[in-house]
Design goal:
Organism: Streptomyces hyderabadensis
InterPro entries: Pept_S1_alpha_lytic, Pept_S1A_streptogrisin, Peptidase_S1_PA, Peptidase_S1_PA_chymotrypsin, Trypsin_dom, TRYPSIN_HIS, TRYPSIN_SER
Family: Belongs to the peptidase S1 family.
Keywords: Disulfide bond, Hydrolase, Membrane, Protease, Serine protease, Signal, Transmembrane, Transmembrane helix, Zymogen
Distance between the termini: 36 Å
Number of helices: 8
Shape: elongated
Helix content: 25-40%
Protein name: S1 family peptidase
Amino acid sequence: MARLAAVGGLLVGGTMVTRAVASEPPDASPAPRTLARTASGTGAGLVSRLGGDRTAGHWVGSDGRAVVAVTDERAAREVRGAGATAQRVRHSMSELRSAAATLRAAPRVSGTAWALDYRSNEVVVRGDRTVSATDWARLTDVAAGIGGFVRMERTEGAFTTRLNGAEPILSTAGRCSAGFNVTDGTSDFILTAGHCGPTGSVWFGDGRGERQVGRTVAGSFPGDDFSLVEYANGEAGDGADLVAVGGGKGVRITGTGVPAVGQRVFRSGSTSGLRDGRVTALDATVNYPEGTVTGLIETDVCAEPGDSGGPMFSEGVALGVTSGGSGDCDKGGTTFFQPLPEAMESLGVRLVGSGQQGGAGSGPATSPPGAAAPGASVPATGVEGRTLLARLADRRNVGPGLLIVAGSLVALVATRWIRAEQDRKAYQRHYSATWG
């Protein structure tokens, strides 16, 4: 038995070493990853240290490095000394925010939106096709009074809240989507858009109303755009840390974060599926027909009616849920998202399966592994479902494989020596008995 075990150890160790070596090309390099989180952290740290009077935001440049807008040369030197790119601008963050506050104080005009464009150092005001010429002229006068760094733009379509999403949930209020699964430590919930339905709305997972998902227990809209749907049985189920992206696939979510302007992000919805784009602005304000929502993330990711409440993420990090926008996925458009950290802090919840907030994804979001619907039990390919052969091919197995081979050789030599000693002693006993 010992010799059989030693032979088995030689086979396993040899397989680990040979497959691990064969799987690693001569010039192996790490898998490509975006640098958005690193650049975002660098830029945010510099902006925080230098202050709002000397900076005007930060974003991720085309080379993946942090770019910080600064108002003086001394600040520019500090930025360059930290390894980031400095861009001199005329107006500080304090001025940009003051302009946005003036716009918020003006009479509300439905169908308008504005956001701080860090890269152009302007406040961009947009008006959709529903805004009358009179209202647009009145808002233009307000912008002119602020200064030349407020840019007025007309946009096609209309700014609307958009129902539905990655995994559909339905109620009498309409069809919406599951965003992310969260928990308060006692019960599990779906965090989705607030405009989907008021507190008390009952949600179902099918059009016949046979499978009740849960009930809305908290939310905020307008002002913010998030709500909390408590699962009917209190539990989200297996695979709750995955978000569906269509085609029977999903992405594992490992934490929450705040995006940077210029960062590549992904959005999933039941109408248009998985789409990607860039963050174009932060702290956006949108005047929907139902009310004004502030503090939104502005992106150029397309969306259509049926995508609202769906998750936005990047590299396994949850960023927000779809609020609304204009345009479609044929012509493109602007889509706004409710930031997730703000909503979770307000509701007192955390991601299901995440012990802390702000975790980092284990890989790029460009290639979603596995599949799962909120509350469904579906394995994630490449995360936990690796085959034994794939595990043996892991490059980290070279060292352990060599140890197993060495141990097995020692065991074989030891068993051979023990067997030889046993045979020698048996022969001695037999010879002694015969001689006597």
